Amino acid sequence: MTTRTLRIVLLLGLVLLFFSGSYTQARELQRPIPRPQTVLVPTTYINESFDLANFPSLNWSTTIITSTDTPDPEWTYVTSATRPTAQPHTGAGMAHFNSYSTINGNAARLSVVLTPTTSVLRISFWYYHSAIFPTSADMLLLQTSSDGQNYITRAGYPRYRATDGWTQYQLDLPFASADQPFYLGFLGISDFGANLLLDDVLIQDTPPIEIFGTTSNQGCAGDTLLYPLSVRNNYPSDQMLNLNLAASAWPSSLPFNQLAIPAQSSRPITVSVQIPATAQPHSSDQTTLQLSNALVDLNQAIVTNCALGQWVDREDSLVAARYSSVVSADGALFQIGGQGPNNNSPALGNTLRYQPITGSWQQRAAMTTPVFGADAAALNGEIYVAGGYTTGGSTTTGLISSLQIYSPTLDTWRNGPSLPIALAYYQSAVVNGKLYIIGGSNGSNALASVWIFDPVNQTWNAGPAMTTARAFASAGVIGNKMYVAGGTATISNQTAMDTMEIYDANLGFWMPAPNLPRRQMQGGDAQILDRFFVITTGYSMPVVASNSSLIFDQQTNQWSEVLLNSSRYGAEADSINDTVFVVGGRQFANNVFTMSSRNESFQICRFVLTTATPTPTATNTPTATATNTPTNTATATSTSTATNTPTNTSTNTPTNTLTVTLTPTNTATPTATNTPTDTPTSTVTNSPTNTPTATQPIDLPDLFLPLVGVELR
């Protein structure tokens, strides 16, 4: 290579090196700059707990809107309240509007001004509902304004509710203008009733991406549960989200891995989770739905529980009512009486029959005296309804002691001997062929009393009182034991209880039992296959209505919770074979109470029954060794029959050694017939061998239905 050629090659190399460096640098500059992550914690504009005596706080103001008489309907700071009696939800103070002593129609507004950076705000606050002065429609209105002068009402919240307590409300307000003043007002309006109480006001931006829908569910082993979710994009531009499920023990899946959502819109997505066939009741698993892009990184936990059973919807009743009597008899379910549609409604006289085979309701003969707040029981093929209210419901007005008896075969009503006292909201049970009326209300107080009706002698007698006074409780019978749970010990200011006690009819006394997992009252009750005691729906403060059903397993001495498809209280329930039905009640949604005609049924999972370890009741065959003075011959004869829940019959020889002393005048358990010639003292030694632990297959009816999804609220 010549010197000239070498120079040309070197020159070309330098030129290429220069341009290649420049090209590389240009490509680096053209790479997209990573978008900054949006802060997941929304901007908080107002977080006011009204804990300072300097009231109103900075940026807050009070304005009297209407005042036709003194004292003024003003908003003030208080550390405690009367009419209603209440303490702050949190902290040292709360905002208080005078409705009690100012004339009806007077109004005042508590307002705050802020300058948001977005056009959609989210407000949450705590508001106190009270049960006093039920006819006074004191009201809180939530209002917005852009100038602080002209307000528009966005929502209204009545003060009265049947139970006292704080309730949190949340509302999105897409009415603001970014970087412009925005006014939020709480307008109190007096109806000469109880005062209004407000606490813990929080105003924030809405988060950019949100997930709504069912995030917790339960089913039987082997079920595949679907979680229908809705993903909302609150951002002003379209978003493409990446979807993923975190690893979990139970199989889970998504229908797709990316989701496009237009601006300020929602799109559905369904997560599928399979409960393994080997899963045990009370076990659970959690998977996490992960949504991410340059805007957001959001995780949503999804919990799946292996439950004892499942609730499904059935044909609605013909009548919407609460405080009905629901009882099974003659292979059918009966809904009797009840109240609707509000607190002042008189009692209903309906007798409705539901046939599970056809899934239909029929109207039967009306009651002699319409009542609500009674608890019917089936005895000797007939239905007994004692006491109850004909009207009213909270005092002695309308409270009766009558006993009404219905024959499902003849479709007729007749009267029986009245209760010794008038009462309602009690629990009934049938044990050893007798009717028990347990607890309840005499119109003023909750009672611990027990009344026992003997259908042979047609008489009422007082039984051993409970250890705790209870009204609105739940009761069930397993074997010869009555389980009474929950309820309230007070009538005027009802507070639910979580205690349970058991009455042993053979021993004749009450004893404590495991507490409920939550406070519960005004729920239905039933028992399944002489093993499970079920409490359906009801409520516990501060929740107004619940979709919880609590199930007590007599074999394991353990409580479980299985959620209904609806939230209700004042519903009633009973069982037919292995199926529990809960009917009626009262729902609370969108600040409105409505009577319900809903009918749901519950069945224990097959897996629970088919793997149950029976606890037999064994009757032993003794061998008697008699020591006689002076001359005796004792012959003991016994037949052993063990009955295993629910349908198996076996002869068991337990492992314990039992010593029984027999006298000539006694018939012992096990049943023994003795023929002595004098007064012997006989020692009987039993040599049983085992308690079976084998799997007991159970034949179930063809009413088993698939699970219907439950939304947690």
TrEMBL record:
Pfam families according to UniProt: Kelch_KLHDC2_KLHL20_DRC7 (PF24681)
Residue spans of biased composition, Low complexity class: 613-695
Keyword Phosphoprotein: no
Keyword Repeat: yes
Region span, Disordered: 613-698
Keywords, in A-Z order: Kelch repeat, Repeat
Domain of life: Bacteria
InterPro entries: ConA-like_dom_sf (IPR013320), Kelch-typ_b-propeller (IPR015915), Kelch_1 (IPR006652), MAM_dom (IPR000998)
PROSITE patterns named in the record: MAM_2
MAM domain mapped to chain residues: 46-222
PANTHER family tied to this protein: F-BOX DOMAIN-CONTAINING PROTEIN (PTHR46344:SF19), OS02G0202900 PROTEIN (PTHR46344)
Name of the featured protein: N-acetylneuraminate epimerase
Species this protein is from: Herpetosiphon gulosus
Gene name for this UniProt entry: nanM_5
